[in-house]
Amino acid sequence: MAWFCSLLFVCFYLAEVFSFVSILCDHVFKKFRIGVRGKIVQAVSDVSVSVNQGDVFGIIGPNGAGKSTLLKLFMGFIKPTFGKISILGKSPDNPQCRSRLGYLPENPCFYEHLSAIELMRFSAEVSGLDPKKTNEEIIRLLKFMNIEHAGNRKLRGYSKGMVQRAGICFALIHDPELIILDEPMSGLDPVGRKLLVDLVLDLKARGKTILFCSHILNDVERLCDRIAIMHNGELKKILNRKDLIDQENQVCIRLETFSKELSDDMDILGVRYAKEGNATIISCSRNQLKDSVNMALKHGIRVEELNISTHPLEKLFMDTISDESV
Ligand SMILES: Nc1ncnc2c1ncn2[C@@H]1O[C@H](COP(=O)(O)OP(=O)(O)OP(=O)(O)O)[C@@H](O)[C@H]1O
């Protein structure tokens, strides 16, 4: 087993060297000490994950799960108590790596006396972007996020959603390879959310790597190649598109009586039968639905309820965080 782990680790590093991996996080822990007695909060606990170049990777989890702390560790704003993080093949606090990163914090707090254009120009200069390209990008991004009419106005006069839009432009002005967004949908109206979805898809099409955390499962579901579920500082599960499709295919049928032929919970050819009070609950995939219902009707058993999974991520999320044994 030990040799297998070592081999896996070597493979991880080789992939990183050849730039297939944008983020590598290896057994990372982060503790905070709070209060005069130095009580310990374990914000991140033994998280190992890798994000491949060109992927859209989402992190979801309840409030206080450790999502923002993990993103701050990736950005190098705080250091892990234990474990190793590599961003674009370098340490997160390496300046060369910083200029290739774009970041939107959870609550953007910019100098309010600057306009959105001044803010973006500042970011572009710090990142060493060609001044000619800077002007083009400023216009393009302000237009894309639909705030070009307010580009010269001071940020102190912006609404929450406008600050968020300016923050997204700020994160992208230097055309970074890796974009880390903490709650990017926060404060955006439905039009703004749609713009952001289009923006993420455009960035993905251009080969960028995007990592974001969000509570809006709908957006996470439609954008991400992989989704990590965090709870109590731990990474409980990583889902891919196939997991979502499998879940979407799930059907739950409630029959009015418990079949006498079923002595206990049973699994027959992928169809699961369970007792719930006097009823039978059948869980199967959509293509088994017709046969399962026909069989019940043939035996004169009435179908009381039929549930077809329409929010696969929500279901997988709720199951994961309610199952403490995971
Ligand atoms: N600087 C800090 N000092 C002490 N505790 C902290 C600090 N930052 C985060 N924590 C604690 O770490 C835990 C994880 O916080 P974090 O902000 O990462 O959660 P989150 O998943 O982003 O939550 P939310 O969805 O509410 O934004 C929480 O218990 C929080 O109180």
Automatic annotation (TrEMBL):
It comes from the Bacteria. It holds the Pfam family ABC_tran. One of its GO terms (molecular function) is ATP hydrolysis activity. Residues 23-257 form the ABC transporter domain. Keywords: ATP-binding, Nucleotide-binding, Transport. The keyword RNA-binding does not apply. InterPro entries: AAA+_ATPase (IPR003593), ABC_transporter-like_ATP-bd (IPR003439), P-loop_NTPase (IPR027417). Belongs to the ABC transporter superfamily. This is Predicted ABC transporter, ATP-binding protein.
